Structure formats: structure tokens, C-alpha cells
Amino acid sequence: MNPKIERSVYIVVILVLAFVLFTLGKKEVELKKQIPITAEELYKKLSNPKIKVQIIDVRELTSSDEVGGYEDSRIPGALPFPNCDESKMTTENLKEALKRINPYVYTVIVSTDGNQEIFKKCASKFTNVQNLAGGMKAWQDAGLPDDSGEYTPPKAGGGGGCL
Amino acid sequence: MSMTERLLFWIAIIVLIVATFGVKGKVDNLEKQLSQVSQQQPANGGNQQ
């Protein structure tokens, strides 16, 4: 076979396979968005240092309800992003948290009870995102570790890890 | 076309095929999970979330 034709055939096969892989990858991300992650699954992921997970807590900072707000009880390492609204990020700490939010990292959205409305609002801001099934209430009910207090950015070199 | 070039093309093709099958497996698994979730939701009165 003519080398030029043979090379072209190989390149076309590679391009077709790459396209199929890309399409399937996109489909995987879309499906993940529709399936909420359970508190136990999230805990397992957080316990594995090889998996990078960004947790975004969309609850208000303080709340008088049973579950509480971000500052009352949160998943360790969670970043505050009340109602997924940048205009609410007014204090120095929240501005710092906003700077740390990376839209391209695998993200889990934490609300009070896994509300789909707020999740849909936030999901548009992230490329690879899942909802926490049952929200913070499910995390607390499962007896998993939590953190409290004002958000403090991790010190340089200290990493953002938590569990 | 040299044998080395041909071999590199084949390696790329095999890597892509393996990756495609891997992702296809994940997608199938997620589709199964999604159908389970959507079956559970009406059973719970659709107010699970």
C-alpha cells in the first residue's frame, strides 16, 4: 500500500476512536450530573488521597434549622458558596474561598437536603459535578466527621485535605 | 512507512480502544444506576431529593 494512504488510514482510525472516546466521556459527565452521590461514597472518595474532590457548600453561613449552616456543621474541606451566588461572597474569607473554587475539578454540591433546584443552578458553573444525595442532613445522619467555624483558607503548603 | 511508525500507530489505536471500552463500561454502569434512581424516586413519592 502507498505509505501516504496507509498513514492517512491510521490517522483517520485514530481520529474516529478519539471522537468516540470524547463523546462517551461527555456522556459520562452528563450522566454523573443526574446521579447523586451518597454520603458514604463521598466519604470513601475523600479518604482516597489520589482522588481530587472539591466540595462546595451552598447553604447559608448560619442557619437556625436542624442541619445548621456552613459555619455550624460542614464536610471538612468544603468551600462556602452560599446559594451559588457570587454577590453573597462579600467578606474577606468568602472572597478568598471564591478564588479557590475551580470549575474544572470534580465537584460535589452540598445543600441542606440535596435540593435539586439549587443543584441545577450550581451545576451550570462546573464541568464535572454531582449532587450529595440527602445533602448535609444525610452526612450528619450517617455519623460522618464534620467541621465547624468560619472558613479559613489552608496555609501555603498545608494542602486542602481534610479527612 | 517504517515499522516503528506503524507500531506507534497501532499502540495509539490499542490505547484508544481500551480507553473507549473502559469509558463505555462506566457509562453503562451509570445508565443502570440512573434507571434504578428514577425507579426509586416514584416509589418514594418523588420527594427523595
From TrEMBL, chain A:
<feature type="transmembrane region" description="Helical">
    <location>
        <begin position="7"/>
        <end position="25"/>
    </location>
</feature>
<dbReference type="Pfam" id="PF00581">
    <property type="entry name" value="Rhodanese"/>
</dbReference>
<keyword id="KW-1133">Transmembrane helix</keyword>
<dbReference type="InterPro" id="IPR001763">
    <property type="entry name" value="Rhodanese-like_dom"/>
</dbReference>
<feature type="domain" description="Rhodanese">
    <location>
        <begin position="52"/>
        <end position="148"/>
    </location>
</feature>
<feature type="region of interest" description="Disordered">
    <location>
        <begin position="144"/>
        <end position="163"/>
    </location>
</feature>
<keyword id="KW-0812">Transmembrane</keyword>
<keyword id="KW-0472">Membrane</keyword>
<protein>
    <recommendedName>
        <fullName>Rhodanese domain-containing protein</fullName>
    </recommendedName>
</protein>
<dbReference type="InterPro" id="IPR036873">
    <property type="entry name" value="Rhodanese-like_dom_sf"/>
</dbReference>
UniProtKB/TrEMBL annotation, chain B:
<protein>
    <submittedName>
        <fullName>Uncharacterized protein</fullName>
    </submittedName>
</protein>
